[in-house]
Amino acid sequence: MKRLLDNETIRGLIMVLFSVILAMAVGSLVMLINGYQPLKVYLTLFKGAFFGKRNFLTSLQRATPLVFTSLAAIFAFRTGLFNLGIEGQFLIGAVIATFIGFTISGLNPVFHVLLALCCAVAAGAIWAFIPGLLKVKLKTDEVIITIMFNYLARFGVSYLVNYPLRESAVAPMTPQIKPSAELVRLAQGTQLNTGFFIALFMVLLAAFLLSRTTLGFGMRNVGLAPRFALFGGIPVNKTILMGMLLSGAFAGLGGGIEVLGVYRRFMEDFSSGLGFDGILVALLAKRNPLGALFAAIFYGGLKSGAMVLEWTSDIPRELIGTIVAIIIFFMAAESIFDFIWNLGNSRVKAVTKEA
Amino acid sequence: MTPRETILDHKNKRQNNSAIAVCMKNITKVFPRVIANDHVNLTVNKGEILALVGENGAGKTTLMNILYGLYLPDEGSIEIKGEEVRIDSPDKAIRLGMGMVHQHFKMVPTFTVTENITLGNEPAWGKGIFVDKKKARAQVIALSEQYGLKIDPDQRVRDIPVGLQQRVEILKTLYRKAEVLILDEPTAILTPQETRELFNVIRGLVRDGKTVIFITHKLKEVMEISDQVVVMRRGRVVYTSRTQETTPQKLANMMVGREVLLQLKKTPAKRGEVVLAVKNLTVLDNRGLPAVRRISFEVRKGMVLGIAGVEGNGQTELVEAITGLRQVESGNIVLEGREIGMFNPRRRRELGMAHIPEDRMTTGLNMEANLKDNAIVNSYYKSPISKLNILNFKVIEKFTSRLVKEFDIRTPNLNVVANTLSGGNLQKLVLARELAGKPKILVASQPTRGLDIGSIEFVHQRIIDARDSGTAVLLISAELEEILSLSDQIVVMYEGRIVGILEAEEADEETVGLMMAGIKPDKKMKDTSFKEKPF
């Protein structure tokens, strides 16, 4: 039995290795067809992501919002919910934090930041709570409602930035937040800020909530076995509402931190896709908060590496995007390798049998 | 059977004995972490009924799946009619004359009987691609007459009772010219009367020269129907005998690997006050139609009230309504004088209700979670399991290992995911958790479904122990034997209604079996029992 367990671990490692190699192979093919040298491109990409202080810190900065959105996705997934509205909750959180950031002045920086972030959390949570309530009370599908809520958020925010809150005549954006609301940047030349430490803390908090509290216990049972949860006396509806609420809270917090730390004002379309990327990161991390931290850094790294590649080479950005997508695809599509692995295994058995 | 037939029968048998239908030699099949078949040898004589018995996980089904081409063995060979063959697909198996009736029927419910029987082998219209429906229907009728298996070829499968559905499955194999029929636990879903009918069908098939492999764990049936019996345990054949040369006790001991009690030890019940009363209860099924119709009964402290009935006669909905998993349409559910029909499951549990659900895979357990999570689902929010909403891992660990020890749950450790344990151990875990709070009423629905003899013995004993310590037990089971051996009083349900209520002493298989088919007992019975309990 021990031997077989070892086999499991070996299998996991082979799987990761295999998916990376395969991703690179397919990516190389794409590059060769287009007349680029794969080895050089990969080297630049990964150097751009993780080598050198500046590159590495930029990767962390890019990872920060993804940590929040992936935690948001994890809380929903664990409760068996598909919150596809993280994008919208993130935007709502961001716009509220900005508003608090530029309207109030003369506050102690700690309080100002705290106030802005608390409002962001509350806004995101409410924005997610409504679809949750509709699901529990009216049995509507949260997938559809949260997607629709994304549109509401996007266009609502767009209106705010274009009209009542617009400052610049050139571009749709709000005034800058007051210095007292800014999250401190950690090093010159990067946008990495103290928000990253909040992200680290939230990862730990999420892990604790999910594994050690009665709430987390309820969530994972409602998520994995809803009938069992009901049968055992877990308040299923309350747990679903809490799942949505927490998911939205993490998303809103992420939005707040992104504006207070990086952009310092709300610009239209500054975040596009961070919510959906978060779902992807959560899946890469197998719905584990600690895993999400690493997956977010990996994903953020690839993105910032791609930027470096774009500046330093003549490869069109579309091709770079394709290569990054291929890598992510192979990392996420583990079931494909499961299938291939099993196929190989049974073939080996068949051969030994015939021999 | 007339004496002449019997003589003919014996003659046939003697002739057939010379031929061997199937011979499996040294079959070994290894799955990750388990050896399902360990050098198994099995010889099936042509024209005989071979009973293949063993506990769950003994390897019976794996062996049959190998014979039917669903798995390739890692080692060993198969001979059919003396010729070595390689069966690498069910298709090949069918061509070699194998036919299998699975435990869960493989049919299209919305298709007619004819369509299901001919599916995949339809007679073509001319040489074209269209099905000749007339011919198909005629073929099915001819086949059913040839083997005396009466069916209506035009009815939809979903509209006919299970007994007949099974007949369609058998006809399906015969349509494909099966010589050897493998029946996987065919009686699990039948009433005693339907079982008897099935046995007549099997005997008829054998008379026509077919060979039957009959998988079961019911020893009474083995003794009744088979010519030869093979017992498997932990992937090996541990015992082979002519049926008339063995006894049920011997078979039971071989199956389990130790001495087992076939008869439950039980003292008369000491009935106390009423704990649970159900009054004029009506419950709707998922389609919104009444599944339970104005049912009333009472369960008293210290007794087992058994609800007998063929599955699908409203028992599931009744249990769900009592335990709070389904809404009550009308009527009352009263626990110790308090109406609980509107309470959620947690409230009911807090008032002293415990529940062993019929489906332990989706309801009774979270198969993806470890044993500890499963052990505390009904107590996770209470001190000392958690304090201030924070789980106390140490207490949980202690609590779970206590349950594991007290109920003899075989597990490598407490952190394994539930779906790695066997059915018997899983049910023990459910039982341990539900009985841990010393419930006032235990609602046990199909508590031994799919379990092996050893586990059944254990579960039954624990239920009786709970009864003797003062718990009121409501037992719902489709296994008549279980109802008869555990209950102090028996309610028989048919189509959502109560056909009758019997005291244990006046209930026997024949009477209850008839009531399960909806036939009320004769006048004499009524006079003794039905006056006291009007319904």
Q: What does this entry look like structurally?
A:
The complex is a heterodimer of chains A (355) and B (535). By secondary structure, chain A is an all-alpha fold. Helix content of chain A is 78%, strand content 0%. With 535 residues, chain B is α/β, with parallel strands linked by helices. Chain B has three domains: 173 residues, 3-Layer(aba) Sandwich (Rossmann fold); 70 residues, no CATH class; 189 residues, P-loop containing nucleotide triphosphate hydrolases (Rossmann fold, 3-Layer(aba) Sandwich). In chain B, 35% of the residues lie in helices and 25% in strands. Chain B is built from 19 helices and 22 strands. In chain B, strands 6-7-8-3-9-10 form a six-stranded mixed sheet, sandwiched between helices. In chain B, a hairpin with a 2-residue loop joins strand 1 and strand 2.
Structural domains of chain B: how many: 3
Strand content of chain B: 25-35%
**Would you list the SSEs of chain A in sequence order as H and E?**
HHHHHHHHHHHHHH
Strand segment count of chain B = 22
Mean pLDDT of chain B: 89
The major beta sheet of chain B can be summarized as:
6 strands, mixed
Low-confidence stretches of chain A: 1-5, 346-355
Helix and strand arrangement:
The complex is a heterodimer of chains A (355) and B (535).
Chain A: H1 2-33, H2 38-50, H3 53-78, H4 86-103, H5 109-138, H6 142-162, H7 195-212, H8 214-224, H9 226-232, H10 236-263, H11 274-284, H12 289-312, H13 317-332, H14 334-354
Chain B: H1 3-17, E1 20-31, E2 34-45, E3 49-54, H2 60-67, E4 75-80, E5 83-85, H3 90-95, E6 98-101, H4 113-118, H5 133-146, H6 162-175, E7 180-184, H7 192-207, E8 211-216, H8 219-225, E9 228-233, E10 236-242, H9 248-256, E11 274-284, E12 290-300, E13 304-308, H10 315-323, E14 330-335, E15 338-339, H11 345-350, E16 353-356, H12 360-364, H13 371-375, E17 386-387, E18 390-391, H14 393-406, H15 423-436, E19 441-445, H16 453-468, E20 472-477, H17 480-486, E21 489-494, E22 497-503, H18 509-516, H19 523-529
Parallel strand pairs in B: 3-8, 3-9, 6-7, 7-8, 13-20, 13-21, 16-19, 19-20
Antiparallel strand pairs in B: 1-2, 1-4, 4-5, 9-10, 11-12, 11-14, 14-15, 17-18, 21-22
